[in-house]
Specification:
The chain has 172 residues and is an alpha+beta fold. It has a domain at 3-121: Aminopeptidase. The chain has helices at residues 16-29, 44-56, 104-117, 134-142, and strands at residues 6-10, 61-67, 70-79, 88-95, 124-130, 146-156, 162-171. A seven-stranded mixed β-sheet has the order 1-2-3-4-5-7-6, sandwiched between helices. Helix 1 crosses helix 2. The longest helix has 14 residues, at 16-29. It is globular.
């Protein structure tokens, strides 16, 4: 991978179409997604509105990664909308399967967590991950996330198999 052409940047409304296609590609994998591809029916206008709403909050972070102009990853850290948990943000990260295990997730985490440290309102970051996703759990642990609980057989796949979901968090 030529990292000279790798760009990590904040998202813009113009990224809506590419982000929508990227999200659908990730959802088609099914093995890491909490949402099924059949349930993901957002239009480009709805995606633009979602991005716009994310960008309105100074404590939200939404970064994209491009390689040679193609969107290959994203990370979001979004603040809770309720007043009692407004000190908490939820993290979500995705990397195109062709680019995994190349340090892109680590780079996104580095940048995003530095930005979160600048947000005095955010005290805790939470995430959910399939307990079978050892690669992701290892990455999260390297950044100080700790397991806070497991929901047994929380996700059911079309083949009637189940997977546990691990809830992890770290304090900023």
């Amino acid at each position: 991978m030529n990292q000279n052409k790798l760009v990590i940047r904040e998202i813009t409304i113009k990224d809506a179409c590419n982000l929508l296609h990227f999200a659908k590609d990730i959802l088609r994998e099914d093995i890491y997604s909490f949402t099924s591809i059949e349930e993901f029916n957002y239009s480009e206008e709805e995606e633009k509105e979602w991005i716009s709403n994310i960008l309105k909050n100074k404590n939200n972070i939404l970064l994209v990664v491009e390689q040679d102009g193609d969107l290959i990853g994203n990370i979001s850290i979004t603040q809770s909308l309720t007043s009692k948990s407004s000190h908490v943000s939820e993290l979500s990260i995705n990397v195109d399967k062709k680019y995994r295990n190349k340090g892109i997730g680590k780079m996104m985490m580095d940048i995003a967590l530095k930005k979160v440290a600048e947000c005095s309102d955010i005290k805790k970051i939470v995430l959910q991950v399939f307990c079978t996703n050892e690669r992701a759990i290892s990455l999260y642990k390297k950044f100080g996330f700790k397991e806070e609980g497991i929901f047994k057989q929380h996700i059911k796949f079309n083949d009637e198999s189940y997977v546990d979901v691990c809830f992890m968090a770290r304090w900023v």
